[in-house]
Amino acid sequence: MKNPNLLFVFADQWRAQACGYAGDPNVRTPALDAFAGESVNAANAVSGWPVCSPYRASLLTGQYPLTHGMVVNDMSIVSRPVSFADALNAAGYDTAYIGKWHIDGHGRTRYVPPERRLGFRHWLGYECTHDYARSPYYAGEDEKPRLWPGYDADAQTEAAAAHLRGSRRPGQPFALFLSWGPPHNPYETAPEPFRAMYRPDAVRLAPNVPAEAAEPARKDLAGYYAHCSALDACFGRLLALLDQLQLAEDTVVVFTSDHGDMHGAHGLRRKQWPYDESIRVPFLLRWPAKLGRAPRTVPAPINSLDVMPSLLSLCGVPVPDTVEGTDFAPALRGEHAVDDGGALLASFFPFHEITYASGARDYRGLRTERHTFVRQRGGPALLFDNETDPGQMRNLAEDPAAASLRARLEAALDRKLARHRDAFEPGWRILRRFNVPLTPLGDDVYHSWEAQA
User: Fold this and answer.
1) Tell me: the pLDDT tens digits for 352-371?
2) Rounded-to-integer distance, Cα 281 and Cα 232, Å
3) What is the pLDDT of residues 79-133, one digit of tens each?
4) Is 106 a catalytic residue?
5) How far is it, in rounded angstroms, from Cα 255 to Cα 22?
6) Which of 52, 128, 228, 234 is catalytic?
7) Hey, CA dihedral for 132, 134, 140, 143, is it positive or negative?
8) Does the global pTM surpass 0.90?
9) Catalytic choice (19, 68, 102, 163)
10) What's 435's DSSP letter?
11) Is 52 a catalytic residue?
12) Which stretches within 167-210 are classed as H helix?
């Protein structure tokens, strides 16, 4: 059998919990809910370094951030790996990328030349914008920016549809990556029909959102859900087109996200935090129909750097030696479980909306099928039983009854860090290693904090 096609669709900041099929009582995602009924659901999939650029670099290289060098946003990849697209190209695929890129590191508005596109041959991309109604992009080798008409996710979806209708040689397998900017903030900018679907006062909050965070959380979530529903409609159109073009019989379809969003949980906002609202992402994978669709749940915590080797393996494409992630294809195919010790979690340096002053810390952690364990520099250890405490409201790290569990997770985390040659250095030292300025506040702020930690 020839290699299957691959349609990889991912959103920005869409947390795993914010889907109808995942049990959110607020959001309306009928296309994704129906898709989940036909798909393998990696229910504990995580973005181990939950912020845009580090995730994307790991997705497209299969490497840990300390290898590819993208430890915070707006950097450039320093390793020279065989990328996801390189591996697919070598196997005869037509490779295309549409939408947000955010791993070039030469400025968010700058043209990304072909040699910095990690092998993608067809290109309608832009480094980074969240102005969804006035969203630029570059097409191919044209260095003049263009504007997506209307809501950019709609226009990008139509561009993906046009590519599916016939931009490749007959019989050639395709790999199309579609990267949407929403539901990342600003939350209030979804198309009006979708905004009209949600009222802040009707949003039901999770128990781990404290009273003081409730009002802003409801307001943000109403807009966030509007974006989610708008993207769900876009996804539904793509699935319908695959059926219309008789491509569904030969296409692996993936829906996922680069990281989540706290939305008031534990009184926190945005991403980078080690809690499930920040790290867990949707990950649905649908087989070609002729291979038999057996919807099921895979509990393994598949991490960002595991996606490339797992999908290459599923497509029958050799996994490059430069990849550091684990191949979870046997688990996704339902052959046998794959246990690599849990998903490594990391924040190398809090930045932008998340700072040391707001309580964030450099951390390393482990997310297993059941537990989360986190070490923080200058902060308390965290240990949660996510089965009995899904809101992560009871920290067991200092509970004598959990001492043996903590010891096991400590040892497992040490093994993971050793595997990736991560000594858990202070964040400022890691940024220095990769020649990243420590912010206009100056180095003394961070040396002072480290001395106190």
Assistant:
1) 778 888 888 999 999 999 99
2) 15
3) 989 999 999 999 999 999 999 999 999 999 999 999 999 999 999 999 999 999 9
4) no
5) 14
6) 52
7) negative
8) yes
9) 102
10) T
11) yes
12) 192-195
